[in-house]
Design goal:
By secondary structure, this protein is an alpha/beta fold. The protein has helices at residues 42-48, 59-71, 114-124, 138-152, 198-207, 216-232, 293-297, 310-326, 371-380, 393-404; strands at residues 4-5, 8-9, 29-35, 75-85, 88-97, 101-106, 131-133, 158-165, 171-179, 183-192, 240-241, 245-248, 263-273, 279-286, 333-341, 346-354, 360-367, 411-420, 425-434.
């Protein structure tokens, strides 16, 4: 929201009719200055006003320029002062920066490098510096420039943008994309800086993406879920992947993944910086009373001196939590708190356990079967009301029913556990549906 303040300082000008009026040169813009911003240079703010040195100006022009700055969303307040003199008009804006900015993503602008896009945008939209305010018109102005860049290269498609956020969360980025243009299919993905034994693993994972639609967001997801874990599993806890660099390939009839005349193939390259390998120093366990330390350690394969492997450790902690569930502690919390020593390249893990309360078996309900099969299934259920609840038992029970009672047909089985926090019991509903 912009608040526009105006102040008329007509130096050398008087309202008395006896004095001579200012010459026409007094209304030519001599200078534009801006104060109050820590984010932008004064010259960028001046360029963003749209006013030109030497043009004839009046108060209406200053108000329009201040409104243009305010509507951009980059400032919370915009004010201005100006002065006329025989030498020309001096204009100064006073602004207050908005602090709500987010990064910008260019999802599929593979025809331009990021540097090329940023330089062109800053040239045309002076208040663009790689980030955008969460509200205001600046995003639309950026979209217009991107559209013009496509037209200049005769690339079909419409530029859209989306304010990206997690469900019910704050805006995290503003993503620009081209829709309605040529399809962009990934051809190959390469990794510079990667070395054995990680490179073959990366290349195998990357092959699965051949022929899929190019999307910066999807590639970011692949880095986090597929590529980065390759390094984490070998103890490279500071491994980093660069932003993907796309390259459009010339069309050839021999491209096996090009199944459409309007599709373009894209090679993608990542630069990988593995960093240094970390090893496990210590692995302490605290908070356990029900399950002995030795039993917990037997589920954790990582030992002192092994390469740190967060994924393997997380799997082990899941197994520990399941073990607690078989003893009625279905709300047990098990987490690892790492302490990294960059000088020694080791990690000390504290396994913290909060066991919580023990739950007991409540009521059992079986749905979807005839009365005979229901009675048989109920007789096979051996965990009685009031017994310590075993979270692993329901699946074993289902396997037994399918093997001994429902021996024909294909069955879909759903298990619902309903916790009663007050009574510390678990009611179970098992539903069988014939496919």
């Amino acid at each position: 929201m912009a608040i526009v303040l105006t102040s008329l300082l007509a130096l050398g000008q008087s309202r008395k009719t006896s004095e001579r009026p200012l010459p026409p040169e007094a209304f030519k813009l001599k200078s534009i200055n801006a104060t109050g911003s820590k984010r932008y240079k004064a010259e960028d703010i001046a360029r963003a006003t749209g006013l030109q040195i030497g043009q004839t100006v009046h108060d209406d022009d200053f108000q329009a320029a201040a409104r243009h700055l305010g509507d951009s969303g980059v400032f919370t307040n915009v004010g201005y002062t100006f002065s006329y003199s025989p030498d020309g008009t001096k204009l100064e804006f006073q602004v207050e920066d908005n602090d709500k900015f987010v990064p910008v993503r260019f999802e599929n602008f593979v025809w331009f490098s990021d540097q090329e896009i940023i330089e062109k945008l800053h040239e045309t939209v002076p208040l663009f510096n790689g980030q955008l305010p969460v509200s205001g018109e600046l995003a639309s102005r950026v979209s217009d420039v991107l559209q013009a860049m496509l037209l200049e290269k005769k690339i079909p498609g419409e530029v859209d943008y989306l304010r990206v956020s997690k469900q019910d969360g704050p805006i995290e980025a503003i993503a620009f994309s081209v829709s309605g243009g040529p399809r962009l299919l990934i051809h190959t993905i390469s990794f510079s800086g990667a070395a054995p034994p990680e490179l073959p693993l990366l290349e195998t994972a990357a092959k699965k993406l051949g022929g899929t639609q190019y999307s910066l967001n999807d590639l970011h997801i692949q880095v986090e879920k597929t590529f980065l874990p390759v390094y984490l599993a070998h103890g490279y806890l500071r491994a980093e992947f660069s932003e993907p660099v796309p390259t459009i390939l010339p069309k050839t009839s021999s491209d096996p993944t090009d199944d459409s005349d309007d599709a373009s193939l894209v090679d993608v390259s990542f630069n990988v910086n593995p960093g240094r390998q970390y090893k496990v120093d210590e692995l302490g366990i605290e908070g356990n009373k029900v399950v002995p330390v030795d039993r917990i350690r037997s589920l954790i394969a990582l030992k002192s001196g092994d390469p740190a492997n967060p994924a393997a450790l997380e799997d082990a902690l899941t197994a520990v939590k399941k073990l607690y569930g078989t003893k009625g502690y279905i709300e047990a919390m098990v987490r690892a708190e790492p302490e990294m020593d960059d000088a020694r390249l080791v990690v000390k893990y504290r396994i913290v356990i909060k066991e919580g309360d023990v739950f007991k078996m409540g009521e059992l309900e079986i749905e979807g079967l005839d009365s005979k099969a229901t009675s048989q299934a109920q007789n096979d259920w051996t965990m009685r009301e009031g017994d310590v609840y075993d979270s692993g038992y329901p699946r074993k029970f289902v396997a037994q029913v399918l093997k001994e009672i429902l021996t024909t047909g294909q069955w879909k089985v759903q298990i619902h556990d309903n916790l009663n926090e007050k009574e510390k019991t678990v009611d179970i509903v098992v539903r069988f549906d014939l496919k």
